Amino acid sequence: MIIRGIRQDLLNLLFQMGRDAHPNEFVALLMERDGVIDEVNLLPGTVVREDSASLLYDMMPLSTHIAGSCHSHPNGVLRPSGADIRFFPRTGRFHVIIGYPYTEQSWRCFSSDGQHYRMGVV
Ligand SMILES: [Zn+2]
């Protein structure tokens, strides 16, 4: 699977989801279509708090279109936590962290090993 980028309007939606969940964290799956991440799949029961990410694993749908995950950091830290790095390899290759204040600059993408990944915006 080659991922060319993430859609700008999906990013805007993720920022909105971050604002809506604040001060809690939200966790969601990112879905791709034709190599573009263009959909978010919010699973029930996953909006809780930091370190909640592991809850998601048991509810993962079986789909070949899962590109990775997205979750928010209400503390604004745009770095994966230790729990995040353990969680990432189980849910796809690309992992977006959205941080407070949920604006254009407050997101980063990471690969499954926790390294910063320069995801394009399309
Ligand atoms: Zn995290």
Layout of SSEs?
Layout (H helix, E strand, L loop, with lengths): L4 E2 L1 H14 L5 E7 L2 E6 L24 E8 L8 H6 L6 E6 L7 E5 L4 E2 L5
Parallel strand pairs: 1-3, 4-5
Antiparallel strand pairs: 2-3, 2-4, 5-6, 6-7
Describe this structure in words.
By secondary structure, the chain is of the alpha/beta class. The protein has a domain at 8-61 and 77-93 and 106-117: Cytidine Deaminase, domain 2 (3-Layer(aba) Sandwich). It is built from 2 helices and 7 strands, in the order βαβββαβββ. It has a 7-stranded mixed β-sheet with strand order 1-3-2-4-5-6-7, with helices on one face. Helix 2 links the parallel strand 4 and strand 5 (94-99). The radius of gyration is 13 Å and the shape is globular. The two termini are 17 Å apart. Zinc ion is lined by residues 50, 71, 73, 80-81, 84.
Features:
single chain; 122 residues; alpha/beta; Cytidine Deaminase, domain 2; 2 helices; 7 strands; binds zinc ion
Short description:
With 122 residues, the chain is an alpha/beta fold.
Helix/strand-derived class? alpha/beta
SSE order, as H and E?
EHEEEHEEE
Give unreliable regions as ranges.
none
Q: Proportion of β residues?
A: 25-35%
- Write the CATH fold name of one domain: Cytidine Deaminase, domain 2
Q: Share of helix among residues?
A: 10-25%
Ligand inventory reads: zinc ion
Question: Can you name the CATH architecture of one domain?
Answer: 3-Layer(aba) Sandwich
Describe the global form.
globular
CATH superfamily placement of one domain? Cytidine Deaminase, domain 2
Count of separate DSSP helical elements: 2
Radius of gyration: 13 Å
Which strand order does the major sheet show?
1-3-2-4-5-6-7
